[in-house]
């Protein structure tokens, strides 16, 4: 666990970058620092590995104040990934990845073997091993940056806007890869971004900062969406937060109707020989010879957000549930869904005994 115990940073010119920060970053989880530009995210991150020293307060890693540790040793135990990857241009990819290992006395061969294994883990081909950074795309360089930070197998990683310099499609790939890797490695990660969607997607916990280095809220992504602590957070998490919060709950609790029940509304769910939905037909759907595509189905474990989206975008307002083989097993009308979401909201609002 990384603890910020009343940490403040005032720069010599009087700028208060971080103001009395109290925060606990859980071990093995991703904690995202998010907020508008200049609110102290990077300064907070850099105080963990002592690139910036606090003016007051203390940062502890597993109960040990970072100030009691040798700076160089401390940094070797903390992976650091920055925007634009920051690779050494005159070193090859394997040399870049092996930098810290070589510093700690690991031999060239062993460092190379680790580097090649890490290349694969971050989704890159071994054929890039002996190339130079300039020969790689921005997204590939970011992956190498992540591999380099992981090479010494540090328990803690600091990541400062690592994916913000690449285009949105590449970023999505990097985020997915990062989550997959973290599920495997379970590092304690502090991750800075100014993008609230990235924070909600990647964070187990999210610290929302506001101007003047104040902490506006610390909570899970779902808490931020469902219960923003104040107008600043509500505004910052943005619109659709009610809808977005549905992605954190599974639809398994919903009461689903039988497939046969759809015909009571006049629609027909057309199935193929294996019972898989093909589309919709019925009097209200125009004079088409072919069924209208259903636009997607859901299955056990899918989110309330997906089911809601399917129901409201369906040509007949009905979301179809399928089993693992794709055969239709039930349906839910958007009217029933709205009623059930309302009941859920009431249940949640009730004080717990
Ligand atoms: N070395 C410094 N000297 C003086 N002021 C600084 C220094 N470094 C940062 N600051 C100021 O401290 C405040 C917080 O900066 P910081 O970089 O931590 O913010 P940030 O939230 O990470 O911003 P961004 O998202 O733009 O990177 C800003 O007002 C910044 O101008």
UniProtKB/TrEMBL annotation:
**EC code(s) of this entry:** 7.6.2.9
* Limits of the ABC transporter domain: 2-237
Name of the protein in question: ABC-type quaternary amine transporter
The entry sums up its family as follows: Belongs to the ABC transporter superfamily.
Q: Which InterPro entries match?
A: AAA+_ATPase, ABC_transporter-like_ATP-bd, ABC_transporter-like_CS, P-loop_NTPase
Which terms are listed as keywords in the entry? ATP-binding, Nucleotide-binding, Transport
Is-annotated flag, keyword ATP-binding? yes
Origin superkingdom: Bacteria
> Could you give a GO molecular-function term held by this entry?
ABC-type quaternary ammonium compound transporting activity
């Amino acid at each position: 666990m990384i603890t910020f115990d009343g940490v403040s940073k005032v720069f010599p010119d009087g700028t208060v970058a971080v103001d009395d920060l109290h925060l606990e970053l859980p071990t093995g989880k991703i904690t995202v620092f998010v907020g508008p530009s200049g609110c102290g995210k990077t300064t907070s991150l850099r105080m963990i590995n002592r690139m910036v020293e606090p003016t007051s307060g203390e940062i502890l890693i597993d109960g040990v104040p970072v100030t009691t540790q040798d700076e160089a040793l401390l940094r070797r135990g903390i992976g650091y990934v920055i925007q634009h990857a920051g690779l050494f241009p005159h070193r090859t990819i394997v040399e870049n990845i092996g930098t810290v290992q070589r510093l700690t006395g690991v031999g060239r061969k062993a460092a190379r073997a680790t580097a090649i294994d890490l290349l694969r883990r971050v989704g890159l081909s071994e054929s890039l091993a002996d190339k130079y950074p300039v020969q790689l795309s921005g997204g590939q360089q970011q992956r190498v940056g992540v591999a380099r930070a992981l090479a010494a197998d540090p328990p803690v990683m600091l990541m400062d806007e690592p994916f913000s310099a690449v285009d949105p499609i590449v970023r999505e790939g990097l985020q997915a890869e990062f989550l997959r890797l973290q599920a495997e490695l379970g590092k304690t990660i502090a991750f800075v971004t100014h993008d609230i969607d990235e924070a909600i997607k990647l964070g187990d916990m999210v610290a929302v900062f506001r101007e003047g280095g104040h902490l506006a809220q610390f909570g899970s992504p779902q808490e931020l969406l469902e219960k923003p602590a104040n107008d600043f957070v509500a505004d910052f998490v943005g619109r659709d937060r009610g809808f977005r919060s549905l992605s954190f709950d599974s639809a398994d609790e919903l009461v689903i109707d039988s497939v046969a029940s759809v015909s009571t509304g006049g629609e027909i769910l057309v199935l193929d020989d294996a019972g898989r939905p093909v589309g919709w037909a019925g009097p209200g759907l125009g004079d088409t010879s072919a069924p209208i595509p259903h636009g997607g189905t859901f299955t056990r474990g899918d989110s309330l957000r997906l089911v809601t989206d399917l129901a409201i975008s369906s040509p007949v307002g009905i979301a179809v549930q399928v089993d693992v083989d794709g055969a239709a097993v039930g349906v839910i009308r958007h009217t029933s869904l709205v009623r059930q979401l309302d009941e859920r909201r009431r249940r949640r609002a009730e004080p717990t005994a």
